[in-house]
Amino acid sequence: MPNFSVSDDVFVRAAEQFPTPFHLYDEAGIRRTARTLNAAFAWAPHFQEYFAVKALPNPHILRIFREEGCGADCSSECELLLAEMAGFSGEEIMFSANAMPPEEFDHARRLNAVINLDDISDIDLLLAHGGIPEVVCVRYNPGGEFHLGNAIMGSPGESKYGWTKEQLPIGLKRLKELGVKGFGLHAFLASNTTDNSYYPRLAGILFDLGAEMEKACGLPLRFVNLSGGVGIPYRPEEKEADIAAIGEGVRQEYVRVFGANASVGIKTELGRYMTGPHGWLLTHAVHEKNIYKHYIGVDACASNLIRPAMYGAYHHIHICGKRNAPADHVYDVTGCLCENNDKFAVDRKLPKVEKGDLLVIHDTGAHGFAMGYQYNGRLRSAEVLYTQDGSFRLIRRAETPEDYFATLL
Ligand code: LLP
């Protein structure tokens, strides 16, 4: 079930204060999720959630995570700059990038960030760009298909990320010769899964493999990085992931492989799970069009949230003041781009929508604003924080035509 913990009164007040469209983020909700996650992994030595900056790249949000004891997972130079801006340094930063310009290693090393190597060839790049630190994390790709029970959760064999199993001992021995004293092991094998067995299964694979590599290379395993992937219920019929059960499942695997008193650390790089449900895109209905289908045109478009257009992703929509009205109309809810996939919903049952209604598009707190773009000369929206004290703070202004023209020579 999508997140209905914030009342319509809050959305209406926010839309009175700021012109739509904009993304609204709930600070209290974000903090609650960070605390729940930290509690679920309180048993683990050196537990650290590195919030995936790509999901919601705003320093105001990053500062909230910092206050909650989280770190930042960065995948580019700009994300490193954002993390710095939010006050993160050293081991509070994980640099998990792939096929990036090698100079970004220089930057990450200057910050003393933990480096996660996507490929065995990155060893030479790192050597030339910032040097090899004492602890290096490596990203594993098991190939083939990844199953949970009967379900195929992903196709690592088709994915560009990570090292093969055969490459691991070769690269780890090389790293040892270069002075590395310990390693981390990372993998990301399923995206947006609310299946509580995903992290435990992944943890089991990485714990077993880490122990095997430790023996094969004589290099101690310092931590396992479970990366992101824990999902959220975008659809009304979907269940939330049970993070306490997930933490306990990982603990059981930990005890199975290392025993109860080991010191191997656990890291995560969750993005969607942390902020997804705590963000909403607020937009007004501005057009109604009836041809072969019924269309509601809103003042947001795919520039503000591309997931439905790009993946056919479902985002729940409700109309302020009509939460309990019967959904007895069927609409496509569209933006204004000259692209027929610029639709937030297709054949969606909703109560009757009037021009001027405030629509709330759910679960835009991760991979929402972040994936914005400017096609058709449409600009990125503002971001507003609904603070713990119940007020609204503009944490990013909307783009203006001046921003659009700023890069032209
Ligand atoms: N760590 C790494 C190295 C990643 O590449 C990602 C996401 C994460 C962590 C965070 O994953 P999360 O917990 O948010 O699933 N744009 C897509 C999602 C792409 C995710 C890419 N990497 C979407 O909107 O569904």
Write structural notes for this entry.
With 409 residues, the protein is of the alpha/beta class. The protein has two domains: 230 residues, TIM Barrel, CATH 3.20.20.10; 129 residues, Lyase, Ornithine Decarboxylase, Chain A, domain 1 (Beta Barrel), CATH 2.40.37.10. It has twelve helices and 19 strands. Strands 1, 12, 13, 14, 15, 16, 17, 18 and 19 form a nine-stranded mixed beta sheet that branches. Helix 9 links the parallel strand 10 and strand 11. The radius of gyration is 22 Å and the shape is globular. The relative contact order is 0.16. The mean pLDDT is 98. Bound molecules: ligand LLP. The site of ligand LLP has 19 residues, from helix 10.
Q: What's the SSE blueprint?
A:
Blueprint (H helix, E strand, L loop, with lengths): L7 H10 L4 E5 H14 L7 E5 L6 H9 L3 E4 L2 H9 L7 E4 L6 H8 L3 E4 L4 H7 L6 E5 L6 E3 L2 E4 L12 H11 L4 E5 L11 H20 L3 E5 L17 H16 L6 E4 L3 H4 L3 E12 L3 E5 L8 H5 L5 E3 L9 E6 L8 E8 L7 E4 L20 E5 L5 E5 L4 H5 L4
Helix pairs in contact: 2-9, 8-9
The structure holds ligand LLP.
Ligand LLP binds next to helix 10.
